[in-house]
Amino acid sequence: MESARGMGPAGAGGARASKRAKEGSRTRSRRRWRKGKAKASRLLHSMDLRTMTQSLVTLAEDNMAFFSSQGPGETARRLSDVFAGVREQALGLEPALGRLLGMAHLFDLDAETPANGYRSLVHTARCCLAHLLHKSRYVASNRRSIFFRTSHNLAELEAYLAALTQLRALAYYAQRLLATNQPGGLFFEGDEGLTADFLREYVTLHKGCFYGRCLGFQFTPAIRPFLQTISIGLVSFGEHYKRNETGLGVTASSLFTSGRFAIDPELRGAEFERIIQNLDVHFWKAFWNITEIEVLSSLANMASATVRVSRLLSLPPEAFEMPLTADPTLTVTISPPLAHTGPGPIFVRLISYDLREGQDSEELSSLVKSEGQRSLELRPRPQQAPRSRFLIVHFHGGGFVAQTSKSHEPYLKSWAHELGAPILSIDYSLAPEAPFPRALEECFFAYCWAIKHCALLGAETEDHSDSDEKALGVMGLVRRDTALLLRDLRLGASSWLNSFLELSGRKSQKTELIAEEETEARREPMRRSVSEAALAQPEGLLGTDSLKSLTLKDLNLRSSSEKSGIPEMSLSTETPGPSTPSDVNFLLRPGDVPEEAETKDELSTKDRGPGVGAAFPEGFHPRRSSQGATRMPLYSSPIAKNPFMSPLLAPDNMLKSLPPVHIVACALDPMLDDSVMFARRLRGLGQPVTLRVVEDLPHGFLTLAALCRETRQAAELCVERIRLVLTPPAAPAPAPPL
Prior knowledge:
Helices cover 49% and strands 6% of the residues.
């Protein structure tokens, strides 16, 4: 008995050790499988397109023959069918991708920067082909094994086949654009009817396959688990959002219901597609603002660099004077933002790794806005660091509709440490509650305030007198006539808005005065949302021209205003003159289409002949979406062509006054083409510009800097670009005379 009792604990300990050994073995096996998959992916990416396609077709035919010989079972039949589909789609896709690759170099910025949307599409399709090739090899090697997971592999193959089919459709669309666009132009500027066809075709395409089991296949493997977590959270959040649940409750409920989306990728993909097709900007705003919750933001800050200063400041909406770089004896009045809601405070966040002179002054402390416990991050220190030579002004991402500087604080803290400079991040007002150009006005006002009060922010004050050798104020970033450039931006946008309001309050062929109450009533929809009011087409005093006739020429400042002694930044003085109409038709809005508009649209479609769908070869039919309407009316908006919405639309004289520009873009970012075209535009004007493109990462990689090696390297590239601006390389010494 004693012997038996003595052996009991030892036997239990041995069982536990055996269990741990088995778990460790399984973990190591999974790790080896993931490493093998990543290695296979790297090897496949080194293969040329034709070799990859031929290898995939050979494997697909072999697997198809094997499963066809396995009898009449349903699973074997589906496996045979899926490999037959892989073979068909791969053979059809390869020529289309080859034609795109053959022309893609014409759309690059230069030979050293091979990047544009066509290349990105080809890269995405290659990733899908590479994954199918890897999976086909795995099936061929393990299909006879008793451990072969038939259902799992079948589901994955069917999901990637669906993705390959849709990518083939996109390749045909891209071919059509390639044949229609101007040489080297990445933006379509042709028949507006063709634009409408493309948009309507895209709306009807099935997209759920890209958000389910295949999510993130085009990105670096290290980031895919994070993207899957985000997608699970998004669809869970969306399910409760549509029930009108709000606040922390919807976040908590999402955590409890996310399990079914985690175990059912197809359900997740379908729900994701429903969300992107049907939910509005308020949903996206609510979802991305989850990171602003105190618990989540605190966790993110725990993993970021520790800084001495992180304070939210409230800038008073008070006008002030600033000297001009061109003539310091003249000043410009910087008035507070006025668009839509009138004067109001502007919130900014000051971040500094060291406590520097001025940052603990009473004047700055009077501007601090309490954030609860977060306001205690600034602690008195016996020693202060001297003021920095530089001050970085940061405008956070979020599409002007979501997030604040709090969401971007982790990487800003790292920047403050690595660059040794304080950072001022602007918390501009967000649309749709504060639509264009409110955020633009607030950014400009805060930028000017930072220059004037840089000593309070821990940065040195520089002499304004030498505009060629000194930066405006302390920035060390912006040279030449920056004040005039930003004045043009703000005054031009405000003038456009003011004129839009005035025109919206008039009636065609009517000269009598309108009562003040009626005028305010007409302006109110515009103040609520520029985007909605812009869809109206009233006839103003400019004749039959619509509001879309306000073009670049109208929005520039008159030369007399630049020569005036004291230019003022206000809404009240500038009005646009007559111009040539400039239509744009690419804004979509759900809603019913008037019967006349539908008839006109149908007639115009018939007159144009074959639509975009005619680009498909006979017998090819992409999958169509079951979510949302199959018809989406197309609306016109003058805002879409406003130069203050995008620097791509700015006139040459405005762009020529820009400082050196450094752009970091992602090869898989929807805004890659914007970056390429903007860099090309600046280079065409003789402006100094660089463009660096990072591979295999999504938009917003800065907030994922701590996630993996690839995101860290991309974030370091951004820091390197900023450092290049702060301390530009010395000009090469002139060669000695011979």
